[in-house]
Amino acid sequence: MHLRMFAWLIDKVIIYIYLYFMQWAFQSNLHLEAAAEYGLVELLVVLPVTTYHLITEVFMNGQSIGKLLFGIMVVSRDRKSTRLNSSHLGISYAVFC
Q1: 97 band by pLDDT with thresholds 50, 70 and 90
Q2: What separation, in Å, do the N-terminal and C-terminal C-alpha atoms of the chain show?
Q3: Greatest CA span in the chain, whole angstroms?
Q4: Which tens digits make up the pLDDT trace of 29-80?
Q5: DSSP assigned state of 71
Q6: Could you give the CA distance from residue 87 to residue 77 in angstroms, rounded to a whole number?
Q7: Regarding predicted confidence, which is higher, 83 or 69?
């Protein structure tokens, strides 16, 4: 169980690094003020952060980057790797509702 906690922590660090980079990008000389006016902040920041776990676990066979580093993965009850199952649908429901 402790490996899952460390994997989660690594995933959170990755998300915070991404958020820090995006904050720097919007506040630097990249002239992204217009992007904020057209809603690209939501597209470039909010969407990747909220769907990180769903996207990585679906496309990386049940592993996020943190889980990959520790060699753990989401599996079904019959110990097969998952693609898109009810747990992923639950994650997407929690994110978008």
Answers
A1: very low
A2: 28
A3: 52
A4: 666 666 666 777 778 888 888 888 888 877 887 788 998 899 887 776 666 6
A5: T
A6: 12
A7: 69
Q: How far apart are alpha carbons 82 and 76 in whole angstroms? A: 6
Of 88, 46, 44, 94, nearest in space to 63 by CA: 88
What is the token pair recorded at 5?
A: 């906690």
The pTM (predicted TM-score) of the whole model is 0.70
Q: Which neighbouring-strand residues pair with 75?
A: 81
CA torsion sign for 93, 96, 19, 57 is positive
Locus of tokens 């217009």: 34
Q: Where are the beta strands (DSSP E) in 1-97?
A: none
DSSP 3-state assignment of 75? strand
